[in-house]
Amino acid sequence: MRFTQYQAFSRLEQLAKTPVDLPAELTPERLTSMKGEALGLKLLYGTERVSSEVMEALQALSQESRALDCMKAMQAGEHLNRIEGFESENRPVLHTAMRDFFEQPNETPVAREAAKLAYAEVEKLKQFQPKMASFTDLIQIGIGGSSLGPEAIYLGLEAFHLPGKRVHFLSNVDPDEGAKILRKVDLSKTVVVVVSKSGTTLETLTNEAYVREHFLKVGLDPKHHFIAVTGKESPMDNPAQYLAAFYMWDYVGGRYSATSMVGLVMLSFVLGMNPVLDFLKGASHMDKVALENDLSRNLPLLSALLGIWNRNFLHHPTVAVIPYSQALSRFPAHLQQLDMESNGKSIDRQGARVNFETGPILWGEPGTNGQHSFFQLLHQGTTVVPIEFIGFAKTQYGEDISIQGTTSQQKLLSNLFAQSIALAQGQKNENPNKFFSGNRPNRVLLGSRLDPYTIGALLAYYEHKVAFQGFIWGINSFDQEGVQLGKKLATKMLDLYTGKSQDFPLGAAYLKPIAPGRC
Amino acid sequence: MRFTQYQAFSRLEQLAKTPVDLPAELTPERLTSMKGEALGLKLLYGTERVSSEVMEALQALSQESRALDCMKAMQAGEHLNRIEGFESENRPVLHTAMRDFFEQPNETPVAREAAKLAYAEVEKLKQFQPKMASFTDLIQIGIGGSSLGPEAIYLGLEAFHLPGKRVHFLSNVDPDEGAKILRKVDLSKTVVVVVSKSGTTLETLTNEAYVREHFLKVGLDPKHHFIAVTGKESPMDNPAQYLAAFYMWDYVGGRYSATSMVGLVMLSFVLGMNPVLDFLKGASHMDKVALENDLSRNLPLLSALLGIWNRNFLHHPTVAVIPYSQALSRFPAHLQQLDMESNGKSIDRQGARVNFETGPILWGEPGTNGQHSFFQLLHQGTTVVPIEFIGFAKTQYGEDISIQGTTSQQKLLSNLFAQSIALAQGQKNENPNKFFSGNRPNRVLLGSRLDPYTIGALLAYYEHKVAFQGFIWGINSFDQEGVQLGKKLATKMLDLYTGKSQDFPLGAAYLKPIAPGRC
Fold first, then answer.
1. Active site (catalytic) residues of B
2. B388, B321 in Cβ contact below 8 A?
3. Which is nearest to A380 in space by CA: B145, B70, B477?
4. Chain A residues closer than 8 Å to B180 by CB
5. Domain boundaries B3-87+290-481, corresponding CATH code
6. C-alpha to C-alpha distance for A301 and A468, rounded to whole angstroms
7. 0.90 cut: is pTM over it?
8. Most CB within 10 Å of its CB: which of A26, A201, A220, B511?
């Protein structure tokens, strides 16, 4: 059955005609009662435009669409990455197996085998640690999921870094980026982690060649400095070229790969192994939470349903994620890939065009910074933007200053809560420029402290939110056919440059304005 | 007259019923003929869904709304920051005067006086250079416009940095951010630039106090390390506390202040004075371009009109800016503030509620990175996202590598052009997952090389694009009343923390989940 054919869909459309009027209905009781909680994370959603009727209908929607069964099937290793009746990747989706080494491991043979293989890589990484100890700098070469998730977590845990260790991320094929990074490192003390599942990603191979050339220039043998993270038997799985190879599998999509060796080699370098295990444990615990029936515990499902309410019934085209934590400055960039590459689709699992909106545009920057930037539009713009705020009770470093009777952390949280209330409640005023409509939906995800365990849980929370939305919409959240056309045309452009083919007149038209001597 | 009452508005609504079908109409001739050009920048818009009729109607819209007259009035110092009939800031908007020292300076007394004052600060900064020479690190403390624009330009020009100079931006009140930066610098060699026009910004004063305390802790006198950038006679204009004070004025809004001392003190530290003057010259030249009648020269007006077509007639809620230049990685964050804080408004200049959409949600990340992230949604999502690509013919460092017959810079540009064409043209396919609808509007802004002059021109190009859209919509792009309510409620929250007042039950409800011992 299609999304729009569920009974709950009609019920929700009905309810959306008169959504909760927050300026009238926002009370302390509402704020304290509308919440979910698991693993020390609380999701407070009293500032969403939902009533108990809406929540019941959303839960019915989740039941009709069998969202929990799909999550179970995913974690069990069923072939959820496919389009029925058409050629597609047709394979399991098993990023959860990358961390399924703790309590209650999945019992199905496919998932078990994947977890076993993943754990072997973790053990290999543990043994490998002494070989990385002498390096001070690590360059991670990889793009998309091989860069965004790992970098977001690297920055998120900077307070936990081992002293004297630095990581640089080289993803863009822009040659200026490589030139800049190479100016900053002593290559004799640098290890390079090259990440590409297929071993054929254009940007990554180009940057690898560029950096290898620089090692050779200064008389260093790249073989003693380069590590491959790749699929077994890919062109990069080549002991003659690399100090070591760590493996990834085709059942782990790039945007879901931060808990695989894609993230862990780099994280073990900068954090050591124990925090890496905490990080995996946090993610794994959230995987189990995502299987629970109780919506007040199953935070990813709760968040997915609230998102669907905002997207499909209140018709908001975007969603902002605003962490009140500077350490999470690049976390929205990771979520942008995770969400938009997964759910930016127009066909369902049967290959039929959808007749409803799928994944929203996800964007965001940290607060309080955003308050001094784009929050004007959030409060008074003509397009309403649903927001998920993220905050933590305690600081990471445990250092703070008290000014005018409050600490900076208290100021940070006060701003977060104030924004949540201001957006929901608005303000009447006779001066139209001081009038705030309110009814701008938002929720608050609160943790105790941003540590390795919590960031692991946070990562998995969003992975499963995205997957749940895909299950409910009935789309395939695990492929990315939409990136192929651009790749194909880029190859044609390159053929123009090399003179291999002139068969791309539109491309040739673009080359004229940048021909030498013209600018 | 209101936006929706212009004759051109009706004509455009009519034309928008059958917009150009790009898969059918995209030709090399279209790509080469639909362009604007000024100051070495080319704006190619053959991949927008516009016909010559649409372009004529857009030009008529610009004439009916007297957009060019408003731009002239703005640069002449008229009180454009106001809402008629209501209390408002009611003052001139003169960021253009901050750089009006080159050809054809504005002749009106107000603008002339502002330029004279600004130039005196530039001269002061020149004289001050030797005093900064001994420092290796600079911490810029400021938030919003005092951080986003300056940081975007700092990163944009990293290839031009003086050796051994580093800058750190401390904006967020999050105490972990200060703790992190202080671990990275030797305070004895660090100069601190504190930026606040009013001298009262909460985050900035808190971070200043935090950093001052650390100087005192290691026995250093902050007076020899701290520079104020502030309004004359603000609480920060205090020679007893600062090594020097540089001035800014209330007719330069935060988001328009990068070419004032807000950006220049820091930029002179890291680049030296001559590149700073080139930067100002690029911006000033674009200010003059923005006054020109010829739409094929007036790039900011051209871009503004194309944006209005996409926003108000094709009804796209967001716009993405995708620079194919890693150096511009934070430029979209600056543009996000510039655009959304300026035009995220719901009332017009007469205080009446608008009956049309104003500023879109602006977001973006560099390409090619984005291709491996959110481009899936751009190609196949259900919400269409208009895009402005930015690219440059040459690299900054002049270092590159040739792999498979092409350089990285050629690969970078090939990807940019390929994306532009792929989004516009789409692709038919019997497999629905390999089907691309096309008709996804985009344009390409091409420069020769990202240098100080060009980034100045780019900055002003976007400032004036935003201002033109505000003029055409008839809204005030220069205030930000929408940020006040959150500030007010944050103060109430802080009063809860200090026990000064309990009069905020909604805030108290939020404090419970983070009370000590609860998480």
1. 341, 372, 487
2. yes
3. B477
4. 158-159, 326-327, 397
5. 3.40.50.10490
6. 6
7. yes
8. A201
Whose tokens are 């970098």? That residue is A151
Distance CA B257, CA B338 (A): 10
Which amino acid type is present at position A338?
Answer: L
Query: Counting beta carbons within 10 angstroms of the beta carbon of residue B50, is it exposed (0 to 12), middle (13 to 18) or buried (19 or more)?
Result: buried
- The residues, any chain, with a CB within 8 Å of residue B18's CB and separated by 6 or more, are none
Q: Which fold has domain A95-281?
A: Rossmann fold (3.40.50)
In order of A52, A307, A338, A456, B73, the CA distances from A463 in angstroms are 26, 14, 7, 11, 51
Measured at the CA of A221, the angle between CA A215 and CA A226, to 5 degrees, comes to 80
pLDDT tens profile B219-248: 999 999 999 999 999 999 999 999 999 999
Contact B173 A86 (CB under 8 A): no
What is the rounded average pLDDT for all residues in chain A?
Answer: 96
Please, are residues A331 and A149 in contact by the beta-carbon 8 Å criterion?
no
Give the residue from chain A lying closest to B214, CA to CA.
A401
Contact A195, A262 (CB under 8 A): yes
Best of A182, A347, A373 to substitute, by most chain B Cβ atoms within 10 angstroms, is A373
Spatial contact of B197 and A219, defined as CB atoms under 8 Å apart: no
Q: Which two tokens stand for residue A374?
A: 């784009």
Contacts of A519 in chain B (CB under 8 A): 40, 42, 393, 446-448
The verdict on a CB contact (< 8 Å) between A434 and B484 is yes
What's the rounded Cα separation, in Å, for the pair A368 and A390?
A: 12
Domain covering B95-273 in this structure, CATH number: 3.40.50.10490
Give the residue on A whose Cα is nearest the Cα of B37: A513
Give strand pairing partners of B347. B353
Distance from CA of A127 to the nearest CA of B (A): 31
Residues on chain B touching A480 (C-beta within 8 angstroms): 376
Q: What is the 3-state secondary structure (H, E, C) of B203-248?
A: HHHHHHHHHHHHHHHCCCCHHHCEEEEEECCCCCCCCCCCCEEEEE
Contacts of A437 by beta carbon, 8 Å cutoff, 6+ apart: A380, A426, B346
Mean pLDDT of A154-162: 98
> Under an 8 A CB cutoff, do A175 and B413 touch?
no
- pLDDT tens sequence across A358-395: 999 999 999 999 999 999 999 999 999 999 999 999 99
User: Which tokens belong to B4?
Assistant: 């929706």
Please enumerate in sequence order all residues whose Cβ is within 8 A of that of B412, keeping only pairs 6 or more positions apart, or say none.
A172, A173, A174, A175, B324, B367, B368, B391
H-run or E-run covering A153: helix A148-156
For domain A3-63+295-478, give the CATH number: 3.40.50.10490
Any idea what DSSP says for residue B52?
H
Tell me how crowded residue A237 is: count the other CB atoms within 10 A of its CB. Answer: 15
Residue ranges of domains in chain B: 3-87+290-481, 95-273
Chain A positions touching B390 (Cβ under 8 A) are none
The CA distance from A453 to B29, in Å, is 57
